[in-house]
Amino acid sequence: MDFNHSPRCQELIDQVRAFIRERIEPVEAELLPAMLAGSAGGDWTKWQVDPKIEELKAEAKALGLWNFFLHDDERGAGLSTLEYAPLAEEMGRSHLAPQIFNCSAPDTGNMEVLWKYGSEEQKQQWLEPLLEGKIRSVFFMTEPDVASSDATNMEATIVEDGDDLVINGKKWWSSGVGDPRCEIGIFMGVSNPEAARHSQHSMVLVPMTTPGVVIKRMLPVFNTFDAPEGHGEVWFENVRVPKKNMILGAGRGFEIAQGRLGPGRIHHCMRALGAAEKGLELMIKRGNSRVAFGKPLIKLGGNQERLADLRIAIDQARLLTLYAAWKIDNVGALSALTEISAIKVVAPNVLQNVVDAAIQIYGGAGVSNDTPLVAMFAMARALRLADGPDEVHRGLIARVELAKYK
Amino acid sequence: MDFNHSPRCQELIDQVRAFIRERIEPVEAELLPAMLAGSAGGDWTKWQVDPKIEELKAEAKALGLWNFFLHDDERGAGLSTLEYAPLAEEMGRSHLAPQIFNCSAPDTGNMEVLWKYGSEEQKQQWLEPLLEGKIRSVFFMTEPDVASSDATNMEATIVEDGDDLVINGKKWWSSGVGDPRCEIGIFMGVSNPEAARHSQHSMVLVPMTTPGVVIKRMLPVFNTFDAPEGHGEVWFENVRVPKKNMILGAGRGFEIAQGRLGPGRIHHCMRALGAAEKGLELMIKRGNSRVAFGKPLIKLGGNQERLADLRIAIDQARLLTLYAAWKIDNVGALSALTEISAIKVVAPNVLQNVVDAAIQIYGGAGVSNDTPLVAMFAMARALRLADGPDEVHRGLIARVELAKYK
Amino acid sequence: MDFNHSPRCQELIDQVRAFIRERIEPVEAELLPAMLAGSAGGDWTKWQVDPKIEELKAEAKALGLWNFFLHDDERGAGLSTLEYAPLAEEMGRSHLAPQIFNCSAPDTGNMEVLWKYGSEEQKQQWLEPLLEGKIRSVFFMTEPDVASSDATNMEATIVEDGDDLVINGKKWWSSGVGDPRCEIGIFMGVSNPEAARHSQHSMVLVPMTTPGVVIKRMLPVFNTFDAPEGHGEVWFENVRVPKKNMILGAGRGFEIAQGRLGPGRIHHCMRALGAAEKGLELMIKRGNSRVAFGKPLIKLGGNQERLADLRIAIDQARLLTLYAAWKIDNVGALSALTEISAIKVVAPNVLQNVVDAAIQIYGGAGVSNDTPLVAMFAMARALRLADGPDEVHRGLIARVELAKYK
Amino acid sequence: MDFNHSPRCQELIDQVRAFIRERIEPVEAELLPAMLAGSAGGDWTKWQVDPKIEELKAEAKALGLWNFFLHDDERGAGLSTLEYAPLAEEMGRSHLAPQIFNCSAPDTGNMEVLWKYGSEEQKQQWLEPLLEGKIRSVFFMTEPDVASSDATNMEATIVEDGDDLVINGKKWWSSGVGDPRCEIGIFMGVSNPEAARHSQHSMVLVPMTTPGVVIKRMLPVFNTFDAPEGHGEVWFENVRVPKKNMILGAGRGFEIAQGRLGPGRIHHCMRALGAAEKGLELMIKRGNSRVAFGKPLIKLGGNQERLADLRIAIDQARLLTLYAAWKIDNVGALSALTEISAIKVVAPNVLQNVVDAAIQIYGGAGVSNDTPLVAMFAMARALRLADGPDEVHRGLIARVELAKYK
Q: Acyl-CoA dehydrogenase/oxidase N-terminal domain: from which residue to which, for each copy (chains A, B, C, D) (predicted)?
């Protein structure tokens, strides 16, 4: 057992940390207030990407700080899940960083799907420009009219018709769909309703310009729209794509979804923990700088105990996430079900608790947008629902546990 | 000991409940989506009050459903704090209701101050139009540059100069200041810096049109601006008002603040509990109507236990708030310090927990504005800071407890 | 709504409080160490009741401080459930007090059953000596071989045979059965297995001297046996009693059990809250008297916040219990299901939390028997299981809540 | 980063696990009921060690399953702290196991002290027989009359007098002092009252037979005495030992205490986690085997969610403890302050929570001694106080955290 990062991993951590501090943070300080304000409403069809973001991307790419997430020596950085994890944590401290290093959801998951399961043609057409950071993508899974915590509830359909697949249904929480750079979506729907429960669904590539793809509205998360990416409600009305847009094969949607989720949860959780570290730092700095009743706030009442509990919680969550990553790399995601579900419960809740405590120290400033805390809170709260709500993951862990005594 | 409401109180509860359901809720259903969307950004100087709101106010006033909060038989409804409490709970279920019955913060507290401590001239000029619902008001207390949890940190100044008082300082979280109907503010600042610690501050009436009163910006709460009332950051630069605008007398600001806070906390807490009841109702209805893994969501995992815990928490918080109200009425706010601080901790936390659980049942819809849950969450989270953060109230309770054994 | 106790109730509270402080506490200080030590093991058949206890009983009885629990003007004190509740709280501060005032479980419940449902002959034979404090009693309900949280699991049988009832089965947690004064038990078992689910059981009076009643062992609770009362495992092997020992009628066991449980839970919960107040007092006194790092322990870290939270928790639990009592008196236990289950969850947990915090302040002394904290902890922990575990009560509350929206 | 145990470590884990299951558990099943019952009271001077225990020790020793804790290739097993940790977890599942492998507190800590700081003569006289398992030992630190959470409160004295050291003071919670095999104690007291705050104390070896060493009584923990080891209150009245019994040198007591505590906390925490795993196993097995309302208990209400949360908590605590062990080995205990304090808070609380949940599933049996749960609970609860209460450790973590921003 060894808790040291590999030398290469440690070097990348240092480079990423330095790039964020020196190159990204100044831009973020400049852009974020306008992004948060603009993100709070208005006409999403006018959303723009600031050119400074593309400049930073080019700079990071030139330095080789790019596509860390992909386990491919040529197309990506060739890191293991475990090696990528601390980089994701570093990126989680910043709003912009994941995108700058071409490591932001949902693109990462979509690229992994194409890399693992895409045909050569699909890779050429969509994976390459995504890996180059030229386009962005969206994943159409969650539906507004059913409880999506049970994926078998899905109602959208994919029907063969001649050389085409005809797609119908309503999706929402399609993140990134508002981005002017978003060109391609992966759509999941029922293609084989008569098959076994987990073989009824397929995934299909749908270019955003396909007729019948209608973005009905953008959805706010705690009143913010996360412009310019956004979270859309998208309706599909007799949308036609060629059969070759099917990924892997009809009925293999759940198989693909499983492959997509393991590493993706590591990414989400490590980013959440990076944000939690940032939140703790903010809490301490503010608590040290403001005085009440003759003492810095952080020294009053139970604040130091709360601080200690949050430190303990973050450290435990990080170790569990790293362990889950190690299991994915060494025994596979299927043998790491408990750990993957566990971190999915733990990390977002840790972040939510840290942010709640930091807000409490900040007072009114904490609920405004003068700090990134509200944005972090929205991230945490949404993450407790995304990719399966806490309760579903607890249920899965319990099932594994009970099975040990069968 | 008797837990029945008085017959008059019960009758008013029934009337208020019916008026909310029959008259206010339909208007709210129509106006709220636009209010929430509009409230998320844009130019606050263009905020408008929908005429339907003034129509509802006139209707409620005509029915005598008006000014319940004021313990004055002629000017108000003549109810005790305890009798008003359940009416505040009913109003808390609705976003618009408090205003419709002329029972919304910060007007209620400001009217109480004027009623208790105002001169005859001050009452004529400002209390009467407030009681009639013709104008609205604001309270200038919290400051951006100091920890306001310790009110003695206050830096704003009130200096005598001939027949005038000259006011300088920065205030924020001045709720209601964005409302086009807002005409008058009560400003608290340091007037007697050499006096004893709690005799240094005064409260002064400042008409919003006074030169030097500058609204710098509106502050979002979890990205929403609560239009058209809003929460402002307001700077006072050599603002001059006549000496007769002083309330009660120089150095008596804390005395007034204390008188203002006791009943105000009852109002806040009962409204929070009304919102909590609404949140629980939403949680149950959604949990009954959506199905996953073959069962309504509410029957899955620990959801029923959570539901029970929330029911217990609400019922306990309500009884404690009613008891605090009874103590205020019967032995005075000073003898009810523990209870007033206790409910100020409990009720907002109960609301936050209910809303968090309801969001979890709603899934994605819960973090959007398709439900009032996000608005309720912002209310709860801000209330844990307003009027003293949780920690200050816990500290006060501990002091009282320790004093019992001295 | 009025939170004042009735004058008579207040007078009794004062008398009981004074009697406990002046008469019982000195005896308790003398007897308790030996009781706790002796209770930890040894031969239960040699358990004795100290004559000082009978002397105190006689004294209390002579002063009319007796049988407060019984709503009967002649046989008892004629107090309502609500009026009795604060007396139970006072008694809960002391280990011996409930017995001294003839208000200790399980006698109170058994006396209520006989008073409400017993025949004249049953009352003469058993109720009268119990009311006089001459004998004690036991309730045979819980069984070792089934999950007793579901009362319909019960396996013990009651079979008619000529003029007799023949009883078989195993019971445990039969509290009080080790007391040398214990003469009578109420036994619940299946008498009508073919009847509807809640009409299969009966309750029967079984004198302790009846052949076939075998006390197999006494059960420790956190290693203590609560001598001289004790909690027994008792086996019934072809135990014969005359048919007239049936209470109310065959198949009416659940009906009786329901009648027994409502007020009994009020008693348990108020005693638990009295113990919680005592625990809080101990915590504060110790926290004030010991110094570490230059300050009294109670002023260190989060201790004052914890203290405040416990004060809030106790006050809320008390109000909810009083409200439940008021509902039992005014609308009946069936309409107070939510409240009765709610306090059954809340009060023991509050006590457990208070005791845990007090132990933490006491350090090593807290886990020894140098304080009553360990005994209070055992009381709290057992009470979370007795009369239905927390989870069953939460389930019941949820059912009531869901039924509101059917 | 690598989460695999070393091959040697894994082999030892397997051997220890097998030995516990095959050799220790049958003996434990036979001895434990009598130990628990006997431990509940009676005359401690008659406590005996069952010969089966010495037989098992001899057997383990012969197999080389012995002294795992000592980082010495010759005297001990030569394992690192990290390698020993999983062995401690295995031992924690059993009441007897730590002693059988000569790895039980307080002997392990005392042996470490002698190994690191003892003179050659001290090693010959006391370390060797301890390593051989021939004698046992005790550590005299905590005092009854002061808050021992602040070690500088210590009042016991060590005074030079000619060739002797004269010792006076009261100690309690001296674990193991009741064991008939206990021959030697390490005593900490004030020797240099004029020195700097952390240089005033020394540690001295005191044979149990030295005149003036008086065992006043054994202290129960939740009513049990942990016979035959016991926890004593011991008074020292002019106890004389030769100067050569001083360890390391006058004034170096805190230095020794620090060296003793780091690895000791790893041991305690891993044993606690082993016990937690055992508790979880018991909870699941009972929850599967008992039925209520038509389902196994474990499937009712929120039980599966609780189970999942406990699994998550145990796994996180284990990883954090292993990480702390790794830091001790690689960067030293001083650089692992946060982690050592963190696990000291986390692990006992996890065990307490697991046991509480398991008791709730067991019902009445859970609070009796029909299961080891009560014993585990006492272990957890005492461990939250021993070696510094939770609050002190949280305070230390906060201090380290705040220092990062100085």
A: 9-134
Q: What is the DSSP letter of C152?
A: G
- Looking up residue B108, the CATH number of its domain turns out to be 1.10.540.10
CB contact under 8 A, C319 and B320: yes
Tell me which chain C residues have a C-beta less than 8 angstroms from the C-beta of B317.
Answer: 316
ipTM (interface predicted TM): 0.97
Task: Identify whether residues C269 and C284 lie together within a single domain.
Answer: yes
Q: What is the DSSP letter of A289?
A: H
Residue D2 lies in a domain: no
The amino acid occupying position D215 is: I
The shortest C-alpha distance from C292 to chain D (Å) reads 5
User: Please, what's the b/e burial string for A200-238 (b: 16 or more CB within 10 A of its CB; e: otherwise)?
Assistant: bbbbbbbebebeebebeebbbbbbbbbbbbbbbbbbbee
A71 and A148 both lie in a single domain? no
**What digits encode the pLDDT tens for the residues B32-63?**
888 887 776 668 999 999 999 999 999 999 99
Position A161 pLDDT exceeds 70: yes
Asked if A58 and A199 sit in the same domain, the reply is no
Q: What is the per-residue pLDDT across D9-66, written as a single tens digit (0 to 9) for each?
A: 999 999 999 999 999 999 999 998 888 776 766 689 999 999 999 999 999 999 999 9
Q: Mean pLDDT of all residues in chain A?
A: 96
Ranges of residues in chain B with a pLDDT under 70 are 40-42
Flag if C300 and D224 touch (Cβ within 8 Å).
Answer: no
Query: Which CATH number covers residue A186?
Result: 2.40.110.10
Question: Are D258 and D226 in a shared domain?
Answer: no
Residues B187 and B102 in one domain: no
- Residue A1 placed within a domain: no
Query: Are the CB atoms for C32 and C95 separated by under 8 Å?
Result: yes
Does B103 lie in the same domain as B171? no
Question: What residue numbers bound the domain in which C352 lies?
Answer: 254-403
Which residues in chain D are contacts of B304 at CB distance < 8 A? Answer: 301-302
Residues of chain C positioned with their CB less than 8 A from the CB of B323:
3, 315, 319
Copy the structure tokens of residue B78: 């003549």
Q: CA C164, CA C158: separation in Å to the nearest integer?
A: 10
Longest dimension (CA), chain C: 78
Which residue among C251, C274, C300 closes a domain? C251
- CB–CB of D345 and A308 under 8 A? yes
Q: Is residue B200 part of a domain?
A: yes
The structural domain count of chain D equals 3
Q: What is the pLDDT of residue B383?
A: 97
pLDDT tens-digit map of B289-345: 999 999 999 999 999 999 999 999 999 999 999 999 999 999 999 999 999 999 999
Predicted local confidence at residue D228, as pLDDT: 92
Tell which residue, B279, B283, B265, B306, has the closest CA to residue B375. B279
Nearest chain D alpha carbon to C374: D222
pLDDT of residue D226 exceeding 70, the answer is yes
Do the chains contact at A368 and B221, CB–CB below 8 Å?
Answer: yes
Is residue D308 situated within a structural domain? yes
Among D221, D250, D279, give the residue marking a domain's end: D250
Neighboring chains of B (3 or more beta-carbon pairs < 8 A): A, C, D
For chains B and C, CB pairs below 8 A equal 139
Residues C274, C208, single domain; the answer is no
CA–CA gap between residue D256 and residue D202 (Å, rounded): 9
At A41, the pLDDT band (50, 70, 90 cuts) reads: low
Helices D303-331 and D253-289: crossing angle in degrees, nearest 10, is: 150
**CB-based contact B312 C320, cutoff 8 Å:** yes
Query: Residue A327 is part of a domain; what is its CATH number?
Result: 1.20.140.10
User: C140 and C70 in one domain?
Assistant: no
**Is C367's CB within 8 Å of D374's CB?**
no
Query: A228 preceded by cis ω (within 30°)?
Result: yes
Residues of A in contact with D399 (CB under 8 A): 304
List the Cα angle C138/C142/C146 in 5-degree steps: 160
- A46, A177, A223: best mutation site toward chain B, by most B Cβ within 10 Å? A223
Predicted pLDDT of residue C406: 84
